[in-house]
Amino acid sequence: MGSRRKARECALQMLFAADVADAVPEDVLRLYWAQLGDADVEEAARDFATRLALGTLARLEALDERIRSRAEHWRIPRMAIVDRNILRLAVYEFLYEPTPRTVAINEALEIARRFSTYEATQFINGILDAIKRDLDEQQPQENVQPEESEESPDEDAEQSPDDEPPE
Questions:
Q1: Please, is 91 exposed, middle or buried when counting C-beta atoms within 10 Å of its C-beta (0-12, 13-18, 19+)?
Q2: Does some domain include residue 66?
Q3: Is residue 154 in some structural domain?
Q4: Could you list the pLDDT tens digit for every one of the 167 residues in the chain?
Q5: Number of domains into which the chain is organized
Q6: Structural domain of residue 117, as residue ranges?
Q7: Does 15 fall in a domain?
């Protein structure tokens, strides 16, 4: 498994814990990394996971609104906790990371296959594809380079969780 996928999985686990515990994000992350200990997670993957988790948690309201706009007949609280956090994570990547949207969708689906159900992958794919189409109409990702490799994090993709998405 690539380090970026591992980072996304770690971020999902942190988001899940924060959602269940309704705790301060920094406390959740600190506790998560402390419990993980010296597990085989490279420093770059830890940094990426932390950036994804903190960025997602800082923008929950906006991300949920984006998801709600395409989740017909579904309220966010009714969604399975893991599914809504996979959606949040992918939409965060759509808006705030240089990850190509198709890659973010593929990663979300792979993570859903591991942590959720087959039906959830279809549900997640439908919502993410609709959001991607909306965003592509507003701002195509013409100049985004595909991720170099799942084995090496994009080190020049440093973006603060406080940065706003491009208009």
A1: buried
A2: yes
A3: no
A4: 678 999 999 999 999 999 999 888 889 999 998 888 767 788 999 999 999 999 999 999 999 999 999 998 899 999 999 999 999 999 999 999 999 999 999 999 999 999 999 999 999 999 999 999 999 999 877 544 445 444 434 433 444 444 555 44
A5: 1
A6: 3-138
A7: yes
The answer to whether the predicted template modeling score (pTM) of the entire model surpasses 0.85 is no
CATH number at residue 111: 1.10.940.10
Tokens 């269940």 identify what position? 20
Residue 146 lies in a domain: no
Tokens of 35: 């419990």
Neighbours of 48 (CB within 10 A): 25
Cβ neighbours around 125 below 10 Å, total: 15
d(CA 165, CA 144): 14
